[in-house]
Q: What sequence folds into this?
């Protein structure tokens, strides 16, 4: 199952939204937390539309609309979103109100907005899109499930285009709690030193990345998305290798056909060994790249990676700032992404397009 | 690509029964599970009618065989019970015999537990029991706990699209099988009552203080409920030689794109979802013998759903009923629970009554089944689930031909 | 129009802007007689629930049914009139 990436819209801690100077100018953080660089939402939403939207919903809608414009598409046939945390801000707000007023004088807005599928629902409302509309909310599989759903829809011939995205916001409260759970580094580090760190924990991040996946190729497409695989709670790297083999076989390629592997290394000494093991044992001598020093760690970070890979394949340029190790690809035809969030591991395969203008 | 997807097992827990057998008995006897809220306190208790499962969390833990000190939310426990029943019902002893996945759905996950510790969550200096429960707010938490309980590792995912969630989980599971990602899927959903949802629906002013009256002219709103419902979906190859309950012959999801919580007046989204289900199945509407409607009892849903049914079936509307006056509206679990009801209807040739009905809605003049109908030909059942965010879903269950 | 009524309308406008998060709205788009629902401001049923709670909580007046609500919620002016007529 495959599809063409016709457009992208990415709000991230980097200058990805207007594609102005990313990756030439990179944003760093020294606070162990990356916050998104947000556009002016009034360009996309008038005050009436935006009145009850929390930040994460605005991020989702703006990146979706940007993506549609990039794809030169007025109406997708389906909308599928992956969001692990949904609208946690609204959930917190409604709960606070319940407690503060002892279940009295409650107003529905934050309750309605807290519903997990608010982002995909609001996009559908905004576009008047009546097609298939799913929201997946499974940690590090949220975006992966959304992509699989989109690929299946296209393969079923039910649709021509699917707007698919991964969105997660890091609220202050959530960041604080993950800190207590030991997910972040206890020492402050610079994001560029993430991969030389030898301690536990990572740095927090967030983002909203949308893509138009299309059945047919059109001029200006970024890349071809050729597959997605998920591996739950693997016992050993051998299980990752089995899925790699499956992915390669389905696409009639070998590991030597991969020009660049983007790894979800996040600087956490407890889990980075998964990636280094695959690097050293199954994908040796292949140029390696990394991305979490650009977006931080969050459940749908793989969506950022897909956006990055798509951009690389379209431009043909591999920025030095994402390379890990000494190897640099001369040409880039096939990019593999291997990411994880907790015990949710995933793989994506993307290929460049020939005959591009 | 497997062209057919079969259902080989069902499992359920709700206000009308702790398992399939008890559920069927209640449905047949017209015994509703709607009553007062007992398991936790709320200022609104005297103004609420809910479909509550009376078992405490401790009792549910005992039934699941987990320790009393373990950190399972009520939502997880209900899901574990129902999904396990479905698995056993399907005769699955060795989960690794085929590639098996789970697609589960929930709307608020462990909110029923988390909300009790929310003040700790707000206080940065507190020592934080909340940390034990923070993961329960994550929709995938219950899915992974159910997966662990059943030994499933091949494929996991969680869908959260409000009240259509588990219907979507079932259709996604079927498509995973058709595309050869896995050979079988335990699919469905689970949700438990919480102050969060009670107050949320109260603020929308769509709750009925009395037992709800779906499709009745004097209907006044919905009753909230809790529960879990799961089905075991299998490919043709995996189902070979097994006792097949029925085929999932059709499904469809669409979006109303009208309003965040209200349906469009003519039920456009509802109509689109049902039409898609017919296209997938290749069936025409005249083949439907029973419709298990979404029928929440709200002014807007029942009218718009009814109008959509009229557009689809014209004057020849088959037997239909909403079963929400039995269980309450179980939110994300509704699609899964009502899938089980639809399959029971097929298996036992029954049409379950639409309780509390007296007068048809003027614009519809549609009269649902008012008492249990037995011994009728039931070959195809349509089940509707419509959620906030305009999310509309329909499932079609068909008897398999010999 | 008396000063008290105008003051009430101004206060109500500020309260509704805060309650519904309409901070970015232009003043000319939200005046005393601007239709609140349908065309005009374009509010919906969720907003009417928000306004009902605001009236109950701050102004101590209650809308008893949705028919009454439709009449009262036509504009800032009609809401102000309702408050004045029903406030104890």
A:
């Amino acid at each position: 199952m495959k599809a063409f990436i016709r457009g992208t819209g990415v709000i991230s801690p980097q200058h990805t939204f207007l594609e102005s100077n990313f990756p030439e100018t990179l944003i760093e953080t020294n606070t162990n937390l990356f916050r998104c660089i947000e556009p002016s939402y009034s360009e996309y939403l008038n005050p009436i539309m935006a009145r009850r939207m929390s930040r994460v919903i605005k991020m989702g809608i703006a990146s979706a609309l940007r993506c549609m414009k990039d794809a030169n598409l007025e109406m997708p046939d389906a909308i599928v979103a992956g969001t692990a945390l949904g609208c946690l801000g609204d959930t917190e707000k409604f709960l606070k109100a319940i407690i503060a007023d002892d279940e009295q004088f409650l107003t529905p807005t934050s309750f309605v907005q807290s519903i997990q599928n608010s982002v995909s629902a609001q996009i559908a409302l905004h576009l008047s899109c009546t097609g298939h509309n799913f929201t997946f909310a499974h940690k590090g599989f949220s975006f992966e499930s959304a992509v699989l759903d989109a690929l299946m829809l296209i393969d079923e011939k039910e649709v021509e285009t699917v707007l698919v995205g991964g969105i997660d916001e890091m609220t202050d409260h959530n960041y604080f709690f993950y800190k207590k759970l030991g997910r972040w580094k206890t020492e402050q580090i610079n994001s560029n030193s993430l991969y030389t760190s030898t301690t536990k924990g990572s740095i927090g991040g967030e983002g909203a990345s949308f893509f138009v996946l299309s059945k047919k190729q059109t001029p200006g497409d970024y890349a071809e998305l050729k597959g997605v695989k998920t591996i739950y709670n693997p016992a050993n790297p051998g299980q990752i290798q089995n899925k790699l083999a499956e992915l390669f076989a389905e696409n009639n390629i070998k590991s030597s056909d991969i020009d660049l592997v983007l790894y979800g290394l996040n600087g956490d000494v407890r889990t980075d060994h998964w990636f280094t093991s695959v690097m050293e044992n199954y994908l040796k001598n292949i140029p390696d790249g990394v991305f979490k020093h650009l977006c931080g760690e969050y459940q749908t970070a793989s969506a950022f990676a897909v956006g990055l890979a798509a951009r690389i394949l379209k431009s043909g340029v591999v920025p030095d700032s994402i390379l890990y190790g000494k190897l640099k690809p001369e040409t880039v035809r096939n990019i593999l992404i291997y990411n994880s969030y907790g015990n949710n591991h995933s793989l994506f395969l993307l290929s460049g397009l020939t005959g591009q203008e | 690509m497997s062209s057919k997807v079969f259902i080989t097992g069902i499992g359920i827990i709700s206000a009308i029964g702790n398992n399939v057998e008890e559920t069927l008995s209640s449905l047949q006897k017209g015994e509703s599970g709607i009553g007062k809220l007992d398991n936790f306190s709320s200022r609104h208790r005297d103004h609420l009618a809910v479909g509550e499962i009376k078992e405490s969390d401790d009792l549910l833990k005992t039934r699941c065989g987990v320790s009393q000190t373990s950190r399972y939310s009520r939502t997880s426990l209900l899901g574990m019970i129902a999904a396990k029943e479905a698995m056993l019902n399907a005769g699955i002893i060795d989960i690794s015999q085929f590639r098996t996945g789970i697609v589960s759905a929930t709307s608020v996950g462990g909110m029923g537990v988390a909300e009790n510790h929310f003040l700790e969550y707000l206080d940065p200096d507190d020592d934080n029991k909340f940390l034990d429960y923070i993961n329960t707010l994550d929709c995938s938490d219950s899915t992974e706990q159910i997966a662990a309980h059943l030994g499933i590792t091949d494929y996991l995912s969680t869908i959260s699209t409000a009240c259509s969630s588990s219907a979507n989980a079932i259709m996604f599971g079927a498509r995973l099988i058709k595309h050869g990602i896995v050979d079988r899927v335990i699919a469905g959903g689970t949700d438990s009552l919480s102050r969060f949802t009670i107050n949320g629906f109260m603020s929308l002013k769509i709750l009925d203080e009395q037992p709800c009256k779906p499709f009745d002219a004097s209907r006044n709103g919905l009753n909230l409920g809790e529960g879990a419902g799961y089905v075991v979906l299998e490919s043709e190859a995996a189902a070979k030689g097994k006792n097949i309950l029925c085929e999932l012959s059709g499904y469809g999801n669409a979006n109303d794109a009208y309003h965040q919580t209200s349906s469009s007046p003519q039920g456009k989204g509802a109509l689109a979802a049902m039409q898609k289900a017919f296209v997938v199945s290749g069936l025409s509407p005249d083949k439907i013998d029973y419709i298990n409607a979404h029928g929440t009892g709200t002014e807007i849903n029942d009218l718009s759903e009814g109008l959509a049914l009229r557009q689809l079936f014209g004057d020849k509307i088959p037997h239909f009923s909403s079963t929400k006056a039995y269980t309450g509206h179980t939110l994300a679990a509704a699609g899964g629970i009502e899938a089980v009801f639809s399959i029971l209807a097929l298996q036992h040739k029954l049409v379950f009554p639409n309780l509390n009905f007296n007068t048809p809605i003027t614009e519809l003049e549609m009269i649902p089944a008012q008492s249990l109908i037995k011994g009728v030909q039931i070959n195809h059942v349509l089940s509707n689930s419509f959620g906030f965010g305009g999310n509309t879903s329909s499932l079609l269950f068909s008897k398999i031909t010999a | 129009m008396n000063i008290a009524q105008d003051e009430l309308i101004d206060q109500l406008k500020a309260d509704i802007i805060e309650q519904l998060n309409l901070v970015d709205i232009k003043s000319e788009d939200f005046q005393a007689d601007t239709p609140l629902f349908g065309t005009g401001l374009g509010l919906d049923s969720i907003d009417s629930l928000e306004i009902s709670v605001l009236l109950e909580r701050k102004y101590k007046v209650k809308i008893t049914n949705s028919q009454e609500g439709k009449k009262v919620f036509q504009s800032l002016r009609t809401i102000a009139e309702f408050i004045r007529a029903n406030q104890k």
Observations:
- The two ends of chain A are 25 Å apart (CA to CA).
- Residues 223-351 of chain A form a domain with the Peroxisomal Thiolase; Chain A, domain 1 fold (CATH 3.40.47.10).
- The mean pLDDT of chain A is 94.
- Chain A touches chain B through 58 residues (CB under 8 Å).
